[in-house]
Amino acid sequence: MIKPKKLEIGDTIGIVAPASPADKDEIEKAYKKLTKMGFKVIVGKNCCDKNGYLAGEDEVRAENLISMFSNKDVDGIICLRGGYGTPRILDLLDYELIKNNPKVFIGYSDITALHIAFNQFSDLVTFHGPMAASDIAKDFSNFSRDSLLNSVSNEEFNPLIKNATEEIVTINDGIAEGQIIGGNLTLITGTIGTDYEIDTKGKILFIEEIDEVPYKIDGMLNQLRLSKKLEEAEGIILGNFNNCVPSGSGNSSLTLEQVIDSMIKPLGKPTISNLQAGHCEPVITIPLGVNVRLDAGNKQLTVLERPTS
Predict the structure, then answer these.
(1) Range of the domain at 86
(2) Does 115 participate in catalysis according to the annotation?
């Protein structure tokens, strides 16, 4: 895997919008906070464009993303927000250009589609972490900032990934090592049967989700089960499942925990849950495409190599 050059104070970060747009005030807040962190900032041309729930036409969003990778003045790239539309541009990107211009690339949620594609087609280590408008422009804690900087810029990289306060939960005991991949469950499932299908063989699969009721989580995990994606993984990490609870009152439903017990536990693979990565605050930044060691019994996740060069 290709490791991007670490970011340093004074480097330039480009904000891109491969999914949905954001309001100008959110972009301005993110700009100011990133500047306060010591970075120069370039805002992508389409960040305020609105084409329904998309930040402009597909070709425009793809072109702006590629331009940030090809721009020699840009040292790192952070996504504006998630939302919808990222998978629509997967077949419009130049993965060889991205491979030849490796840069820190940060995002989550709908951006999962790009993480999978960049990891598999550009051999690029990427970062499942906070986004400009969704996180940095809002109540961005010191823990979240430090976790991000630890992965993308710190000279002394701390390899141990841990929660700010909440306890990690062991689902299945055991130890597994492998390359960590994944992201949002909906986006992972959406790759099945396409040229961009996630490869979980021998890897540690990370999954997070938001606002999906348990029966939909059940259906998506079952899709991963039937397609052998869960079976082929060495270990599984369940991140934050924000507001994934039954809807309405009086409706008969399994809980999220019951779904996990029926879908994940029988696999017998080393598995932890409640890692605070995904749609949450504080939020952990996870480097994707690097080798990690999952010690589920001791509730420890350790990155075995520095994610930047």
Answers:
(1) 12-152
(2) no
